[in-house]
Amino acid sequence: MRKSAFALRAFNVETARAMDIASDPRIGLMRLLWWQEAIDKIFSKKLIEHPVAQALASVISEHKVNKSWLKRSVEARINDAKREVSDIPETVEELERYAEDTMSTILYSTLQAGGIRSTAADHAASHIGKASGLVLLLKSLPYHASRNRHFPYIPVEVAEKHGLLVKDQGGQPEIRIDSREGLCNAVFEMASVANSHLEKARALAGTVPAEAHPVLLPALPTQVILDTLSRVQFDVFDPRLTRGILGVLPLWFQLKLKWYSWTEILKTVICEANFPVMGNFPFMMRFHVQEKFEE
């Protein structure tokens, strides 16, 4: 299981950072297209001189991993890379689909590689992948703003609701970044969607087989991001978000991961997070944690 998880996550990192490390977007897109072709070669048992591709090929040769999940992940990133900066998603559902295509598919593949056949585990992986993908998009907003002064991952429907949507000279929708309060409101709304997916995953905790628990550990860093966003009033530009790992000391973060990967006991903890009053949003939001992913 560990070997498969490392290979699949390394593959995900390679494709996720392809556009970020490229000096030219065209080079980043070429990397993604290379991975799209590499997947076909791997399943055709052709040798590829690339360490991550070789690790992935080893996993695929030993286990039954669905090719469509890997292709779907890369193709989603290719489509995202081809988007114009001004091409803003219309709805949160579009971002949820992107999160599932890029994050949930890796969890599906890891479950398959581990020989875990469980509908409950698949459903939990779907929700955790969506939650993880959404919060990572939120965390990336300052990075994208620093590169091109745009927020490509705030949907039109959310931006319009919170007074962030404007039209440029060409009539194209654009997210303005000078309204910090409106931005915090928008981030809160999207974070609430991510939290809802975590709650749905937790509701399945009692039916998920124990061997699937380590695969679903990405719920932990997702919860850490949500908790940190809550502490900074959902201000993605707050400098505390850049400290350590997601605002948590690196050693403590690693200890939490190790503890929850070792224990086989499902715990039920009710913890309350203070959320600021934002329009019609509640002052308090209760997190129901019914698994080993959170203290």
TrEMBL record:
Superkingdom to which the source organism belongs: Eukaryota
Chief subcellular location: mitochondrion
One of the protein's GO biological processes: mitochondrial respiratory chain complex I assembly
Subcellular location(s) of the protein: Mitochondrion inner membrane
Keywords recorded for this protein, A-Z: Membrane, Mitochondrion, Mitochondrion inner membrane, Transit peptide
Similarity comment: Belongs to the NDUFAF6 family.
Name of this protein: NADH dehydrogenase (Ubiquinone) complex I, assembly factor 6
Organism whose genome encodes this protein: Sesamum angustifolium
